[in-house]
Amino acid sequence: MVKTAKVKKPAAKTVKPGPKRAAARAAKKKPAPKTRTQATSQPKAATPKQRLPKGPIWQWSAMDTAAAIRAGGVSAVEVTEAHIARMHEVNPKLNAVVVDLSEEALKAARAADKARGRKGELGPLHGVPVTIKENVDYEGRPNPNGVPAQMSVIAPSDAPVVRNLKKAGAIVLGLTNTPEFSFRGFTDNPLHGLTLNPWDPEITCGGSSGGAGSAVAAGIGTIAHGNDIGGSLRWPAHCNGVVTIKPTQGRIPAYNESAAAERPMLSHLMSSQGPLARSVADVRLALEVMSRRDPRDPWWVPAPLESEKPKRPIKVALAKIPDDMDVDPSVHAALRQAADHLERSGYRVSEVEVPDISGVWQTWCDIITNEVVVMQEAKMLAVTSEDFHKAWGGMRAKAEMLDLAGWMQATAQRSTHIRAWQLFFEEYPVVLAPTTVKPTPGPREDTVSAERVREIFFNEIRFISAINVLGLPGAVVPVAVHQGQPIGVQLIAGRYREDLALDAAAAIEKRAGMLVRQLWDKMA
């Protein structure tokens, strides 16, 4: 494991004590002094005919929570109060949620309970608590993206993903932390500070959706929103032991009205919004909700979420790892374990070489770096920290600086790579690959040196970042816990075949179990 210096835990600074009403309700529970956040708690609204999920409310899945609210077994207010209590209990140590929306959430929950009593169809996430990453527009609030100089950027409207979640009935508990400009794979910034991993403060929670991953793993919200341009959904899912799907580009609409300018084309085509959750079923539900049309995104595609399944047994390619990648034995073991779970579920797994993963990664690095250098670099460096400069410098050093002809050739090469992978999926509809090939690094590992940054991105998480330039869907599901750290694997499928990636992830989850339960036992 990579050795890291001892990290000081961040001071609690954003989440205030819970509302009096929540405390009063908790105080009335029997037997004293236990509260609704403890393992023995169940809501008072339960009746013998309404079988509610086991455990405290904050541990329930999004699907179970929505079903319980629809059935009247529990109110949206009770659910929201339980999640707020959990947030106030664990977030001061983690610094995952950096904007507390408790009062707004309780107001929305009360409205949700009134709506349930009226005629009309309820949304699939009616009353279900979620979090939003603080780099998309949330109406009326700043969208600083981890940068103090951007606190004056106020969102005039909700981003599509926020709008879709709210329309589905979700209750937003708070906004989660992200690194400066969401550019690092480690979640730390001068505005809110460092976010810690609930499994171990000595390892990173990942980035840039590190606050989202840390929050949902610790039990703050059932679903966390995040986004991914180089691994920012899949890397935190791996680090925090939760599930995610990076959708095909165009699956989930994206737009920030607060942005001063449109994003460069290829950066937009390599970026995806998406959910993190504790189970595959919840990720699938969140994907369906987030994917609904928004006319503000010209790249949104009305593709079906389910398509015809390949002939069984479905062939899975266990990706051969390039010889120049230094692989930890624990990663080999996790991949073999995942392959065995798939075989036992009726898949046919073969270890094969996938199309030019190293060349694909270099294309991703060259395209995104050159676009940033031309369009954003000077402005970003003027308002960011020395840590950001170190991390960005490491990424920039690995890229080839291109002239106009070179950049056009690189973007054309992207089509060649996508075609090769699409043809590969004709024989192997799913690819099983690592997320990282090494143990999870320390919380600020990308500030050590430029060489360490290149090592992390090119050697360790090459299989994550490369997939962004292809625009392919990739799911991550936890498989094992090794020396106290969760290990996940990646399932990659063809364009708009999120269903195949999630089906394979569900087959692994069925046998591996929901690993965050081990975390909750540890945190108790």
Automatic annotation (TrEMBL):
Residues covered by region (Disordered): 1-54
InterPro entries with a match to the protein in the record: Amidase_CS, Amidase_dom, AS_sf, FAAH2
Residue ranges with Polar residues bias: 35-44
Basic residues bias (residue ranges): 1-11, 18-33
Domain Amidase per the UniProt entry, residue ranges: 78-500
GO cellular-component term (any): endomembrane system
PANTHER family: FATTY-ACID AMIDE HYDROLASE, FATTY-ACID AMIDE HYDROLASE 2
Protein name, per record: Amidase
Lineage, top ranks: Bacteria, Pseudomonadati, Pseudomonadota, Alphaproteobacteria, Hyphomicrobiales
